[in-house]
Design a protein that fits this description.
The protein is mainly β. Helices cover 12% and strands 43% of the residues. A hairpin with a 6-residue loop joins strand 6 and strand 7. The C terminus is likely disordered.
């Protein structure tokens, strides 16, 4: 698969849980984030092309954002084993980014990230 990412990923430095909104199950923890998607480190693999509504919970308040969580529809684009044998890197593409999502993602990146250029 060719690399089609057009923006630099930002690794998130906060402990940020990500759940399947419909099932209420923990998918894992946010590894990195862009305006178009996220990578989650989880204990169980997910099928590519699976549609999921993610619930991302923030540990602290974000500047200019009243909510401590974001729900956003996403599609699994890839799922690969992590370096740890009990973990998976699950790549999600956000499928319906609304203005309120953009505001939350920007606040999250401003508060908790360091720049990490992927090759």
């Amino acid at each position: 698969m060719s690399e089609r990412r057009t923006e630099t990923r930002k690794k998130v430095m906060a402990f940020t849980p990500v759940h399947d909104m419909k099932k209420g199950t923990l998918l894992g923890y946010l590894g990195d984030l862009t305006m178009n998607g996220a990578m989650v480190i989880g204990a169980k693999p997910l099928e590519a092309d699976k549609q999921i509504t993610l619930k991302i919970e923030f540990q602290d308040e974000l500047p200019g954002v009243s909510s401590k969580r974001m729900t956003i529809p996403a599609r699994v684009v890839r799922c690969n084993r992590d370096e740890s044998p009990n973990s998976y890197k699950i790549g999600f593409e956000f499928t319906d980014v609304k203005p309120e999502h953009t505001k939350i993602i920007e606040a999250l990146l401003t508060r908790y990230h360091f720049r990490h250029k992927m090759f």
